[in-house]
Amino acid sequence: MLIYKDTTESFADLVRRNMLTNQMVETFNNRFGYTPGQSEINSWQNSLTRVRDIIEIASLDDNIIALEYEVPYNQSRIDCLLFGKGEDQNENVVLIELKQWSSVTALPDEGNFVETYTGGGERVVPHPAQQTKGYHNYVKNFVHEFETDNPLLLFSCSYCHNYTKVDGSGLFDPIYKKIVHDYPVYTKDDVALFADKIKKLLQNGDGFEIFNRFMRSKIKPSLKLLENVSKIVNNDVVFSLLNEQLVAKNLIWSKVRKADKAKKKSVIIVHGGPGTGKSVIAINILAEAAQRNKKVFYGCKSKPFTEGLKKLVGGQGKLLFSNLYRFLPSKMAENELDLLLIDEAHRIAKTSNFQYTRKEDKTDIPQVEQLIRCSKTSVFFIDDKQNVRSLEIGNSNLIRESATKYDCNISEVELLTQYRCMGSNDYLLWLESVLGYSDDKRILRENDIFDFQIFDSPSLLYETLAIKEAEKPNSARMVAGFCWPWSKTLDDSGELIKDVKIGDFEMPWETHDKIKTPKGYVKWFEWAYRPEGFKQVGCIYTAQGFEFDYVGVIIGADLIYDRENDNLSSNIEATRDPTLKRSKENFEEHMKNIYRTLLSRGMKGCYVYFVDKETEKFFRSRMD
Predict the structure, then answer these.
(1) Nearest 5°: CA angle at 43, between 37 and 49?
(2) 276 and 208 share a domain?
(3) Which of 76, 79, 464, 474 has the largest count of CB atoms under 10 Å?
(4) How many whole angstroms separate alpha carbon 178 and alpha carbon 112?
(5) Using an 8 Å Cβ cutoff, are 206 and 62 in contact?
(6) What ranges in 61-206 are assigned the alpha helix state H?
(7) Average model confidence (pLDDT) for the chain?
(8) Cα 273 to chain center, whole Å?
(9) Do residues 177 and 231 share a domain?
(10) Is the dihedral of CA 205, 206, 211, 217 positive or negative?
(11) Does 624 or 506 have the greater pLDDT score?
(12) Of 415, 431, 454, which marks where a domain is finished?
């Protein structure tokens, strides 16, 4: 998706007549349904005149320019792309990140970050070359035409058109030497140099043909974490971290280093909604820490998720993954670890004591404090809207309070850009709106890139998922609210009882842990990552933390329409979840968190069936 595309000649003419920005605002409004912020409009007005100057100096007259290109599976946008043949007849794409910065402070922390005035204040942000590198790798990961026998070639750079170049300082401090070499930074002092480079890459034109090659290219499948975790742990570059993900990674490494020097503990809270890359960052950091010989662990309460990670990593690498009961005071000394990464921190329990805890392992220390106690730096990846049961009390305030008790430095970072749901932030904002998290009455637009469909029958929904599953095994799953019993025994023929029944539709839940798994099925914690799981319906406890290309969601009678207040409410009588039944005062909050989580498991699409037809009508009233 683009905000603007045309020949370089037409682009220059529109800029010269001061008409381009208005045209882009109109296109943006039609595409997204709202007007861009004034700061973004100002950046177009200020930066694109400088791009025109470079194009005219380079005498580009048979080329195509594209502005605000939305990268695959993500709503991040690349400022400028130029297309054409170079002096050597290679077919080139030039990626330009535009910056209005005029002054920058270099930061010694690793990760290629700087401090500059942006977004209304002084902020720590990625160095332009680091940001360019992220976009460069991301585009090459997904656009197939960069990997054909006669590939497109990608040159990526940044243009800081207000910045005065001073060798050895600011953007050109020696600490950035390598990344600036790989992803050049041009300034206002480099106009002739930049124009000459662009000319060499694009002077033989034919931009329209190359643009079409790029835009019509096959987009490679979205990367799912579990399918690539072994590569990450082996230190292969699989996921290109972008924007706030880079900020989080840099912050973590900065605190690890300072904790070693200052002997003061640090706690970092990484906030992020569904699909913002919390687990991707955690496992990237885990791999790097292991490579650096740091004593590090990844902890997560979800047995399905940790078992999936262990299975795929294998070997010694699986020893780095643990549940939250490994960090008891009886098993781990204070500050024994350099770094502890806690994923799904909203699932932290009140205590680590349970039925089978040995007497010598029992402790009065709350679980969150155990996690902080055992490591010099602890990182908590959390979504406060994914707390789905009363026994799990993890939340940001609890972590802050516990960190203060241990006199820790506390830092926080928020991940805003999400990579699931085809990168559609609009879909997630709409979902939160319709579930009642906000008072905004958002409408899901018909042209939204995420495939959201409501089905009239669960059978048709499952048949549609089966087509997706046949095209790409292990890419689709059916889930449901916990509104049907979960049998602890097999039927008379030794098969799973098909508990989830709606009319003539019936399917079994994931296998109960008290049942010996029948042939052709998998254990409950394997449901999400082994192909046999497609034959069973999953619930929140097996689906949370996972992602699928397509997810089918049966919304049970526990989510109902409240006609008097014109919103969605809860029906505790419909739930079969014994844990939720014991927490009546928080039932509605947990139930909505459950459906928010289930409805955001899909990378490409979400297909829904509603048991309660009034609830379905309410959802449809919020759709085009």
Answers:
(1) 140
(2) no
(3) 79
(4) 10
(5) yes
(6) 128-142, 177-182, 191-202
(7) 90
(8) 8
(9) no
(10) negative
(11) 506
(12) 415
Claim to verify: residue 185 and residue 284 sit in the same structural domain: no
The DSSP annotation for 174-235 comes to GGGHHHHHHS-EEEGGGHHHHHHHHHHHHTT--HHHHHHHHHTSPBPPPPPHHHHHHHHHTT
Claim to verify: residue 239 and residue 123 sit in the same structural domain: no
Q: Are strands 602-610 and 451-454 parallel, antiparallel or unpaired?
A: parallel
- Pairing assessment for the beta strands 337-342 and 375-382 based on DSSP bridges: parallel
Residue 186 amino acid letter:
Y
Q: Classify residue 494 by its DSSP letter.
A: S
Give the angle 362-367-372 at the CA atoms, nearest 5°.
120
CATH number for 463: 3.40.50
Q: Check: CB of residue 169 under 8 Å from CB of residue 24.
A: no
Residue 619 sits at φ, ψ, to 5 deg, of: -60, -45
- Could you tell me the CATH number of the domain that includes residue 242? 3.40.50.300
How many angstroms separate the CA atoms of 567 and 570, rounded?
10
Our count of domains for the chain comes to 3
Same domain, 260 and 409: yes
Are 379 and 339 in contact by the 8 Å Cβ rule? The answer is yes
Write out pLDDT tens, residues 267-299.
Answer: 999 998 887 888 888 888 888 888 888 999 999
CB within 8 Å of 346: residues ≥ 6 apart: 382, 383, 384, 386, 387, 392, 394, 395
Q: Do 381 and 490 sit in the same domain of this protein?
A: no
Q: Is residue 220 part of a domain?
A: no
Residue 501 has pLDDT above 90, yes or no: yes
- Print the domain residue range for 39: 4-215
496 and 462 in one domain? yes
pLDDT attached to residue 413 = 86
pTM, two decimal places: 0.76
* Spatial contact of 395 and 345, defined as CB atoms under 8 Å apart: no
Number of Cβ within 10 Å of residue 618's Cβ equals: 20
CA–CA separation, 401 vs 405, rounded Å? Answer: 6
Backbone angles phi, psi at 330, to 5 degrees: -75, -15
391 in the same domain as 304:
yes
Q: Which residues have C-beta within 8 Å of that of residue 215, sequence separation ≥ 6?
A: none
Helix (H) or strand (E) holding 329: none
pLDDT in tens, 215-241: 999 877 556 555 666 566 665 555 566
Tell me if 406 sits within 8 A of 372, measured CB to CB: yes
Residue 356 placed within a domain: yes
Query: E-assigned strands of 508-623?
Result: 537-538, 548-555, 559-562, 567-570, 602-610
What H or E segment, with its residue span, contains residue 53?
helix 38-57
**Does any domain span residue 585?**
yes
| Alpha-helical regions (H) of 544-612 | 578-581, 587-598
**415, 442, 468: which is the final residue of a domain?**
415
Among 132-136, 315-319, 458-462, the least confident range: 315-319
User: What is the per-residue pLDDT for 440?
Assistant: 83
